[in-house]
Amino acid sequence: MTATRRVVVPLRCLKDPQFVKLLEQAADEYGFRCQGTVAVCCRPADLERVLACCFR
């Protein structure tokens, strides 16, 4: 069973090319269907790395 983690992503990250690429990869692999919150299927370490780049 895969653990789920909730992460709040600042809006400015939506313009970051690495974050956009991560979203596109997740959509390509898992599809993109959401109601309410957005679920991104990826390894937590990948998301943390991309978010760290948003704050530089």
Topology:
Layout: H1 17-30, H2 44-54
The number of E-state strands comes to 0
Our Rg estimate from Cα atoms comes to 11 Å
- Share of β-strand residues: under 5%
Major beta sheet summary: none
Mean pLDDT across residues:
79
| SSE succession | HH
Number of helices: 2
Question: Could you please describe the fold and organization of this structure?
Answer:
This protein has 56 residues and is mainly α. The chain has two helices and no strands. The protein is globular, with a radius of gyration of 11 Å. It has a domain at 11-31 and 38-54. The model has no long low-confidence stretch (mean pLDDT 79). 4% of the residues are buried. The longest helix has 14 residues, at 17-30.
Keywords:
single chain; SAUR_fam; 56 residues; globular; mainly alpha
Question: What is this structure, in a nutshell?
Answer:
The protein is built from 2 helices and no strands. The protein is mostly helical and 56 residues long.
